[in-house]
Design brief:
2 domains; 2 helices; mainly beta
């Protein structure tokens, strides 16, 4: 699924509404045939969406969930990033961008953020000229709620006055005591993932 999302090939969508009580009683595998679950909190149903369609740049995007009961490989094999200049509190310079290692690869890379960078990606709009850049990247999706859950959603890039002027699809895995992020190289220089 992740490779299809990275390429952003259009595919079909199907939605099934399930009573929330039944959803909790039945095995999750019944509903996660493609790893996509969207929860509606203001009704008594959970919408299960099977989709790998391209995401739309929005500050309120869909988030797709994939559950597992075993430790995902990305929880054991990831790149650590401790760069303090990507923290939202950093404003001394705006000359940084994510076109250097590990973001120079043609494929996405699993990243674990650790202090002094922060431990997670910013999850609300970060104005330009913070975290060492002009075009700030913030995670617009939902964080994985349970251990070993992987979610797929988008990072919005804030430019000018537009909080989501462009975006890129990423995944986040809950590794029990930390999260790891599957991050592609941003569109161009001055685009940067921000942390807190």
């Amino acid at each position: 699924m992740a490779s299809n999302l990275q390429r952003q090939r259009p595919m079909s969508i199907s939605t099934v509404n399930v009573d929330i009580d039944d959803f909790e009683r039945l095995p999750r595998e019944e509903y996660i045939k493609s790893g996509a679950i969207t929860t509606t909190t203001n009704s008594s149903t959970t919408a299960v969406t099977i989709s790998t369609t391209p995401f739309v740049c929005s500050s309120s995007p869909a988030t797709y969930y994939q559950y597992t009961t075993v430790t995902p490989p990305q929880c054991l094999n990831y790149t650590t990033n401790t760069d303090a200049t990507r923290n939202i509190g950093y404003t001394a310079s705006i000359n940084y961008c994510d076109n250097i290692s590990p973001f120079t690869n043609a494929t996405s890379v699993w990243i674990r953020f650790q202090e002094p960078a922060g431990t997670v990606m910013a999850n609300s709009p970060v104005p330009p000229n913070y975290c060492g850049t002009v075009v700030t990247g913030w995670y617009a999706g939902q964080y994985p709620p349970t251990v070993f859950t992987t979610v797929t959603s988008i990072v919005c890039f804030y430019y000018g006055t537009n909080t989501c002027s462009s975006c890129t699809v990423i995944s986040v895995t809950n590794c029990q005591t930390f999260n790891v992020f599957l991050l592609p190289q941003p569109h161009s220089c001055n685009y940067r993932y921000c942390t807190l």
